[in-house]
Amino acid sequence: MMRVANWLLVLVFLPLFSLAIRPDMCSAKPKDLPLEPRCIYRSPDPDPEGLTLEPEAIPESTNPRVWELSKANGRFALSFYRQLALTKTPQSNIFLSPISISTAFAMTKLGACDQTLQQIMKVFEFDSIKEKTSDQVHFFFAKLICRLFRKKDESTELISANRLFGEKSLVFNETYQNISENVYGAKLLPLGFKEDPEGARATINDWISNKTENRIQDTLPPGSLDSTTVLVLVNTIYFKGQWKNKFDSHNVFASDFHITQSLSCSVDMMFQETQFRYQFYPQDKVQVLEMPYSGDDITMVLILPSRDATLTQVEENLDLTKLTKWLNGMKETNVALHVPRFRVEDSMSLREKLEAMGLTDLFSPEKASLPGMLDNGGGGLFISDAFHKAFLEVTEEGSEAAAATGVVAVGRSINLNREVFLADRPFLLLIRESTINALLFIGRVVTPCSP
């Protein structure tokens, strides 16, 4: 019987959970971290004719390869988002953590060989990193994780953790386990999938539920595991932040949100007027505004199409080059901001979307090559599916220590030089680590209607 590996990629907002990565990883040098996976893929020369592009500015105190990895994750994020949007109705919300998905499949790459390894490198853009060999990607992931999840601010939590659940009757490759634990903090817990797959499913769901204070229930649906399951990977990320400039609860009012030209719903609209990084791009027909959380490292970016444009048009034409131009072009501006309270939650199977992007062999019983996971070479091992879950809730709460200057009651402002950002129609959002522009979350809000 073919052995089937069910991999679970789950994104949850995870309170009271610490990053499971060894402290010395953040100061480790390449020689301190022996990376010897079963197979190594060497990327082709990205500049075969020897042409040298003008070097770009890299943020201060940033490893150039970590910078490239952050950009690779950004390109994957937008490519995957566009693919996901094709499978959704225009009136569906979307929310996901692309960096969480990339991290989980980087761990998958640890056991991959041949065409399977090459496809992972290509689909997740890991082959765009100038360091030629695939094993070094893990070292730079460790550095990126340390940079992203270091303590940002007393009122901000950005936390990630990973866990492997393996069939207890099998012997997993020691090198695979060591790199998983040392780089990604993913320690292996044996479970009896063969004897009691439903019991194992309950154990994994309980682990997720406990880590999220019971906010995420039944992540793995009934029937998602069976007696042939070998390995389940749980990847979690949690973010909780307070606005640098909070919204005054007295400036929250009922308003209409226009889902389409003919369909609207009621929302609780928040308001404040203060300084934000902002820009209107008439050629692209979008307003872009950045709302910082306390500490300034993590921000939410809102991308609002003009009234004569649709969200679909913006999505179809968005790539990392354009997004970077928008982000770099914003300037401190006095803005009257209206944005609804909202909560978005999204669950998805990743398999079909990733297959459409070129990751086909990994999910094929005949073609998958994952010999680095098990001691016996793992013949017949493949990934049956992957699942991802995310949610986001936005309210008026912010940092009590931040100055709430410039906030006025609706209709009372006398500043005629301000810009107006009225998010009363579908918009895109990003949550990013701004110093290296790492996209932590991406989504769209189409139906934020109040219950």
From TrEMBL:
Its main location: secreted. It is found in: Secreted, Extracellular space. One of its GO terms (molecular function) is heparin binding. Keywords: Blood coagulation, Disulfide bond, Glycoprotein, Hemostasis, Heparin-binding, Phosphoprotein, Protease inhibitor, Secreted, Serine protease inhibitor, Signal. Residues 1-20 form the signal peptide. One of its GO terms (biological process) is blood coagulation. InterPro entries: Serpin_CS, Serpin_dom, Serpin_fam, Serpin_sf, Serpin_sf_1, Serpin_sf_2. Belongs to the serpin family. This is Antithrombin-III. It comes from Echeneis naucrates (Live sharksucker).
